[in-house]
Design a protein that fits this description.
By secondary structure, the chain is an alpha/beta fold. The chain has helices spanning 2-14, 19-33, 56-68, 85-92, 110-115, 136-148, 174-181, 195-213, 216-220, 233-255, 266-276, 286-303, 349-361, 372-382, 398-408, 424-433, 444-455; strands spanning 44-49, 75-78, 124-129, 150-152, 158-160, 164-170, 224-227, 261-263, 312-317, 324-328, 341-345, 365-369, 386-390, 392-393, 396-397, 413-418, 436-439, 442-443, 468-469. The structure holds adenosine-5'-diphosphate and magnesium ion.
């Protein structure tokens, strides 16, 4: 049991936001590992449907990584290369005596199936990618293979697929699926539909597109039709996190003693996410976006000798928001090297906006919450270095929030802003916990001084504008 649990969790870490896919896949592998797969047919036949860039191809790569240790340990047939009838013959090779018989190695041979297995696992993964692109004769050739697990080659030898899972991916119906989900266009609004009705609806839409394209015999031989959902913001953000972690691991593995750390704050991750995703391509461009805007510029810095060993490269966003800004972090920033994050909790939008502007100009990453409960949620997610809160919040007292945050995240420094003198017990709590109190109206200069003292030793720059804020 432990082994399949770990297969499911390994897959879930590589293919995010598609739990029903993993749920349908694991038992099939389990059956094979238990030696209980049926005879005379493939171990499983899966049709993976859904919009572009939702993880269909990635699923098979991830399974190959989990079972064989490499995403390349699978036999992939790019169906786009078999669009013409005569090209389909390359799959099985020409019969003896035909022109080109000796030159054409069939794409599907027993040897090739064995080559993608490992000592650890004898299961071959075969992927017919983007099957809708292949000429119709491809599905005819595949009928016997799906049904009996046998493929007759041109030279009349037979290839057994009994120890094979067959995957076919397609974006058939994807456009209709997206239309179902988005009455108005937009990747984000795709998430507006209740997920529960969405799943069933998408499956029906996708299946009807499949039935229009393929013969009933073909459709009947598919064990599982899995429908991929458009990825929601949380999944996309998990993919970015994953890519950033991979980059960091790569740096450590490749550079050894010359390795350094890369600090990619939340705002930068969001920027990458927005830049790398679209309705049309899903998350397909995400990896490339990370590569282009982060990995490549980092490589240039390393090549130029600008990155000393064991330092920290800080990533920010350029002013025009067109690219990322990379720099070696200087000492003296709060908690190591991160672009510090300030959580501002205030019901008064105007003051919040003012402080936000001021701190952002000083290089802080500022996030704003309007209520205490929102602040708790954001703090859990963003782990801010500092929190500035109004004493009087719509849903509670600022000091209580400061106490809670201080307990749940030791090391977070808080500043409470108040109009009136605080009640004695609040004052005492602040003194005990080292929470600074800022009496309104305060001068910007004064506020900056307190923030600087409280939140970090980072220089807050010139602050000679004695602007009064109420
Ligand atoms: N669900 C997902 N989980 C993790 N990464 C994903 C997911 N969907 C897409 N990606 C990212 O996008 C890339 C392209 O996804 P892919 O599986 O090729 O899309 P398609 O559904 O069109 O086959 C992947 O290599 C991966 O970086
Ligand atoms: Mg694909």
């Amino acid at each position: 049991m432990a082994q399949t649990d770990s297969l499911a969790s390994v897959l879930a870490s590589k293919v995010v936001g598609q739990p029903n896919v993993i749920e349908a896949l694991v038992p099939c592998v389990e059956m094979f590992q238990a030696g209980l797969s049926p005879d005379n047919r493939p171990v499983g036949v899966y049709l993976l449907l859904g919009p572009t860039g939702t993880g269909k191809t990635r699923t098979v790569e991830a399974l190959a990584e989990a079972l064989h240790g490499s995403s390349k340990s699978m036999l992939k047939i790019d169906c786009g290369e078999y669009q013409m009838e005569h090209e389909v013959a390359k799959l099985i090779g020409a019969p003896p005596g035909y022109l080109g018989h000796r030159e054409t190695q069939p794409a599907l041979t027993q040897q090739k199936l064995t080559a993608v297995t490992t000592e650890k696992c004898g299961l071959s993964l075969v992927l017919f990618d983007e099957i809708e692109k292949a000429a119709p004769s491809m599905s005819r050739i595949m009928l016997g293979l799906l049904d009996r697990g046998i493929l007759k080659l041109g030279d009349n030898t037979a290839v057994s697929f009994e120890k094979t899972i067959i995957f076919m991916t397609s974006n058939l119906g994807a456009r209709e699926m997206m239309r179902e989900l988005t009455p108005t266009v937009g990747f984000q609004s795709a998430m507006a539909v209740e997920p529960d009705d969405a799943v069933g609806k998408l499956e029906r839409v996708a299946m009807s597109a499949v039935k229009r394209k393929f013969s009933p015999e073909f459709v009947n031989r598919i064990d599982h039709v899995l429908t991929y959902q458009p990825l929601d913001a949380a999944s996309l953000s998990a993919i970015v996190d994953h890519e950033v972690t991979r980059l960091q691991r790569h740096i450590v593995e490749r550079l050894g003693s010359r390795a350094f750390s890369v600090d990619v704050p939340y705002a930068v991750r969001q920027w990458l996410m927005e830049k790398g995703t679209s309705v049309e391509y899903g998350a397909r461009e995400l990896k490339r976006t990370v590569h282009r805007f982060l990995t490549q510029p980092l490589g240039t810095m390393v090549a130029r000798g600008e990155v000393p060993p064991a330092c920290c490269v800080l990533v920010g966003i350029q002013k025009d928001k067109a690219a990322l800004a990379l720099g070696v972090a200087k000492a003296g920033m709060p908690r190591g090297c991160s672009q510090p994050t300030l959580l501002l909790v205030d019901g008064n939008g105007e003051l919040a906006r003012f402080i936000e502007r001021m701190m952002a100009a000083e290089g802080w990453d500022v996030v704003v919450a309007a209520t205490a409960s929102e602040a708790r949620r954001m703090a859990a997610k963003r782990k801010p270095h500092g929190v500035m809160m109004d004493a009087e919040l719509p849903d509670g007292r600022g000091v209580n929030l400061a106490v809670q945050l201080g307990e749940s995240m030791p090391g977070t420094r808080s500043v409470v802003m108040t109009e009136e003198a605080l009640p004695l017990e609040e004052n005492m709590a602040c003194a005990r916990l080292g929470v600074a109190v800022l009496q309104k109206p305060f001068l910007v200069k004064e506020a900056l001084g307190v923030i600087r003292a409280q939140l970090g030793r980072r220089s807050l720059g010139r602050m000679d504008a004695p602007l009064k804020v109420a």
